[in-house]
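Regression check, iron/sulfur cluster case 408:
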Amino acid sequence: MKEIFIKKPTYQVMVGSVPVGGGSPIVVQSMTNTDTADIQKTVEQVFDLWKAGSEIVRVTVNNEASADAIPHIIEGLQKRNCHVPIVGDFHFNGHKLLQAYPECAKLLAKYRINPGNVGKGSRRDEQFEAMIAIAKTYDKPVRIGVNWGSLDQVKLAAMMDENAKLKMPLPSDALMREALIQSALESAEQAVSWGLQKNKIVISCKVSVVQDLILIYQELAKRTSYPLHLGLTEAGMGSKGIVASTAALAILLQQGIGDTIRVSLTPTPDESRTNEVVVAQEILQTMGIRSFTPLVTACPGCGRTTSTYFQELALEIQTFLRESMPQWKDTFPGVEDMSVAVMGCVVNGPGESKLANIGISLPGTGEIPVAPVFVDGEKTVTLKGDKIAHEFKAIVMNYVESHYSKLK
Ligand code: SF4
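Current build output:
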């Protein structure tokens, strides 16, 4: 991690084999949207998320069928050589499901508990304690995951009453933020009082408004050393979801806040769930925090680009690099830091190409139809004709093999 990111020290929590907090790299995680009881579909989606780079995957465990499915899902994944830690997301009936399905409790890598809907009234503490007892039995960590949409209303009402008596009452949005923070921290302290170790707790306080999320996590980071799971909840679809999540997460990450991130995008019906993993990785990588896959620098194109060829080449190269990563990860260590530039003309093309490990500058309007290629800042070859894409890919592949091979 670059020196500009001064991380606040947190406890290290092991989620299966993945460390969260305590100075370990910021972890990318995601969540399925299949019916967990549909074993085949859930295995398929977890596998895809993992292949895309999700290091932890959460599944909802909302009923007996889904609790019963967990061992089968994990078995199905292991058959495909996928050992990604699976987290169970529990709400109202989590205590009952974990008690009734010990294999599910044993095989999950972490339990997500929402203190706002773990139980009502006097049952709340009893049911929460039952879940913590099971976590202790199986030596599992938990995430105390508070969410604005399911904030403990009794707690909020009591805080509002107290607030109204103050000479200078807090504005309602500040009170809401404080209620979320207190709900998370008090629930964590309860869990500790029942014997859960501090290095078994991750905290999250998710809201859907960017500025509120930033203020809440800045405050959490001051008040606690539990690792923090960052995410803007209900971020939305398409560019809105991506922009809102990036705006919130980037500011917090820049301040050294956050140990694991999830980008909660609403996929369009034909969109892959894995996009949320790509976005999370790209936030970390473009900020210089962690590298996952070689990135393509491409100019936006303008009136000097005569056809869509340049866009097609940039897309083809980015897709080729991303799809190659699952195989390259082990064979070519360090390749994730490689940069490739695909530029539309000679105005900025050679300059950007020289800065990248490999760069190509395609011919713009009125330019000679040739494409100079730069490798480590030096012009090596000029491509022409209709096989430019094919030849450029071969140059990239050759660079990867000669610079990152383990056997070198
Ligand atoms: S590099 Fe050339 S094609 Fe690309 S935006 Fe700049 S001027 Fe336009």
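Comparison notes: The longest helix spans residues 309-331. DSSP finds 13 helices and 17 strands in the chain. No diff flagged against the previous build.
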